[in-house]
Automatic annotation (TrEMBL):
Species whose genome carries this gene: Methanobacterium bryantii
Superkingdom, taxonomy of origin: Archaea
InterPro entries according to UniProt: Pyridox_Oxase_N, Split_barrel_FMN-bd, Stress-Dev_Protein
Protein name per Swiss-Prot or TrEMBL: Pyridoxamine 5'-phosphate oxidase
Highest classification ranks of the organism: Archaea, Methanobacteriati, Methanobacteriota, Methanomada group, Methanobacteria
PANTHER family, sorted: PROTEIN BLI-3 (PTHR34818:SF1)
Chain segments annotated as transmembrane: none
Domain Pyridoxamine 5'-phosphate oxidase N-terminal: 9-95
Length: 141
């Protein structure tokens, strides 16, 4: 397995779970995943969400991508630090990819349109078959 496998797995998984920290309390929520490429795992949120403040205070996160099957499925966990991305082309792309954002009044120059990515960190895959094996980390970034 290599980083390309991580990119493919993430792009095939429309919902992931993202954990942040607020003070000393972990917070996790399901998010509609945007996309992954050789530069990392990309997310879009609204600036009015609690998550935005949590990410500003502590950029360390972990994302869990899960693809179910008849048994337990396959999981990929990605841990790292996020970086906010202020790129007009990406903001236009997110509005094209997620037209519902326009219904909320978002435009590419809306201050509440927040894009971030996990650009560096480590990932690993889990299945029930590999449950007791040592983790095989894939470093990226």
């Amino acid at each position: 397995m290599d980083f390309k496998d991580c990119i493919n797995f993430a792009n095939e998984t429309p919902v992931c779970y993202l954990a942040t920290v607020e003070g000393d309390q972990p917070r996790v929520r399901a998010l509609g995943f945007w996309f992954a490429d050789e530069n990392g795992f990309y997310f879009q949120i609204g600036g009015m969400k609690d998550m935005y403040g949590q990410l500003q205070a502590n950029p360390k996160v972990e994302a869990c991508f899960w693809q179910p099957d008849e048994a337990t499925g396959k999981m990929m966990r990605v841990a790292g630090e996020i970086e906010f991305v202020d790129d007009p082309d990406l903001k236009k792309k997110v509005l094209e990819d997620r037209p519902f954002l326009k219904e909320f009044g978002m435009t590419f120059d809306s201050p509440g349109l927040i894009i971030f990515r996990i650009a560096k960190g480590k990932a690993y895959f889990w299945t029930m078959t590999t449950n007791f094996e040592p983790k095989k980390f894939i470093n990226f970034g």
